[in-house]
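Students often ask why we bother predicting the structure of a whole assembly rather than each chain alone. The short answer is interfaces. A chain on its own may look different once its partners are present, and contacts between molecules only exist in the joint model. In this exercise we take two input lines together and write out one structure for the complete complex. Read the inputs first and try to guess which parts will touch.
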Amino acid sequence: MSYFIQQLLNALQLGSIYALIALGYTMVYGVLGLINFAHGDIFMAGAFFGFFTAYLLKLPLIPTLILSMLLASALGIMIERIAYRPLRKAPRMSLIITALGISLFLENFTRATLGGQPRSFPKLLEIQDFTFLGASVTNLQVVIILVSIFLMLVLRYIVQNTMIGKAMRAVSDNKEVLALMGISLDTVIMVTFGLGSALAATAGILVGLAYPVIDPYMGITVGWKAFIAAVLGGIGLINGALVGGFILGFIEIFAAALLPSTYRDGIAFTILIIVLLLKPTGLLGRPVIKKV
Amino acid sequence: MAMLEVEGLEVTYGNIRALRGISFKVEKGEIVTLVGANGAGKTTTLRTISGMTSAAKGKVTFNGKDLLKTKAHHIVRYGITHVPEGRGMFGNLTVKENLELATWTRKSKAEVKKNFERVFSLFPRLSERINQKAMTLSGGEQQMLAVARALMSQGELILLDEPSMGLAPILVKEIFRILEEINKEGTTILLVEQNAHMALKIATRAYVLETGTVVMEGSGQELSKDMRVKEAYLGG
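Now the answer. The structure tokens for the assembled complex follow.
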């Protein structure tokens, strides 16, 4: 039983990381129809922003988080402005290739300037163990899960209740008419990139705290997994990203507990293939109705 | 100076000349209608005024302001509201959210509240459906929502593209009655219609469009009696 609870917490922890990143994929997809392949690297950049904020400015956890979220937002918005906006009317393929290019650029730029060796992430939290229902839990695990859930609730509030959130949902229904309401599409897209990047940065810092090393390529695998989570839940749907993230986290943790752990990454991709075969629009997705 | 002035407007889609230099104007307080067959350029005209389509040549001014150099989302702030062809619902948003988004440019909460009350008194059906997703509404209700949304933005001039499309005759009558009422309350209307009969009935003035040019103009009454209009658009 305690073993099960232990694994459950691990799964929640991993799932919330995936969900935080998956939200960025799904939100950008919702407004632009673009799979932003550079999103995993914003997660990495966020971890490095946290690293430098904590080391150079000696800030504690919460201010480090906030500052890194702001920096990552700025980075995400800048990428959209420079690389994606000029291609707004270009074929979808150009946009996707550009996103892959940005991804490689961020990875290699980081490696070129900071070096490729893993760096140990500053200990922003005094780790304490305690026992919960017989399972050994760290305060870090609790923090990761709570911070993630808190931010998901904040995002949910923004998307459901604020004007900009309503505009974000409206974009995927009808881009053109949004302008007729006096709403600038550019503004909506900018906010979307800003929010998604801030969540990815949080995930980056939480991973940095948990593992606790970061490197310029840390965004690749985690980014792909989060992308799978978004597709699994139904890309373009906020709830889909959450559901997908947690399901993937659970499956990975329990698969690793039962199978040799080297199978773990393979399992995520196997799930992707199965979902795409059985339900291409994801678990929460509705079948696409093609208009004639 | 008229409220809206369109002069020598030309619009091309690739090699197709959708508008070949049309000119017309709308005075404050009028209901002006553009009638004409499919492909005459009615929708393109409205789209160009509201900034959804860009012009090749010509001039469009609203209260003296040049619209052709203005982005669509700024044109709304000048006081022009466009109810586009096909109603332009945000299908996954609720009726309330659709209406709220139309108040984006309105900062005063009291004003927004007043607009909600006005809209719900004009369209009681919408207040019953307030928390329903727009895509679950019937065609008539969607059209009402589209008009209601235009009222929420409080434009001085409303551009309406085929409000009667796909609606049962009784609903068409209802929509037109409401348009007249809105007009009496002081909103100027530029109406594009294939249902020329209804449109000419409520129009102060009308223009007949054919393949991207204005071929006739006059008061709504004059045109509805004109033999050529009768033959071409009113079924003899």
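Check your guess against this: The mean pLDDT of chain B is 92.
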